[in-house]
Amino acid sequence: MTGPVHVNELLNLKGRRALITGSGQGIGQGIARRLAQAGAYVILHGRKDTTALRDLSQELNALPGGSGLILADLSTSQGCAALMKEVKDTYGCLELLINNAADQGNTALYDIDPDSVTAMLSTNVAAPMLLTRDFARQAKPGAAIVNICSIEAIRPSLGHSHYASSKAGLLQFTRAAARELGPNGVRVNAVCPGLIDRPGLDQDWPEGLNSWIENAPLQRVGTANDVADAVLFLASEASGFITGSSLNVDGGMDCISGW
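-> structure tokens emitted (259 positions)
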């Protein structure tokens, strides 16, 4: 049992190394920025080398914590193992793991094919499991894992049966891992975002966007920063007695009746 942390230090991640998978865009970028602003050394990950990733790394290098960048394909067990080996060989032991990388598809149930199911489960469930396993083998007390799930793990949307199922699996894995790793002083939690704004959303899905804003208690969609703030909380000492939990970041949509 540790002593109380001063309120000014609750969200301070100085000296902590954080791996954020899928940090090349959207929510991943927001999380990377927020953790770096809190003082963490952020290790960015992407499947491919992109200008966005390089620009983000350069941006974060201007902050006190700094950043690194590793490329890996998390749809295979070999890619997951290679990522964690390179992280350990290059940066040493991690204190924080943010499992954010995900595959999202929109396919009617009767059109789902075996390859799409395998790909979805490999990236959304198997990869976080394998990364968590390797992280746990080197983690010290005080380490934390945050899995980015989705409110679809609780309330699935039409055409998202394989995606919703994969996120439900990740949510249950969060709870199972919290039980096993708790005695080692490692916390495991999840964030379940609702509809998060992105460039072109109003053009790609205007009816869904309008419906969300009309029905959500806070009457807006979420932002990457909204999710990043929740991740910062769960990664920090501010949530030191929280594990096996999920935090909905959905503007209150889970309170709305689906009838």
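Strands lie at 17-20, 41-46, 67-71, 96-99, 144-148, 187-193, 246-249.
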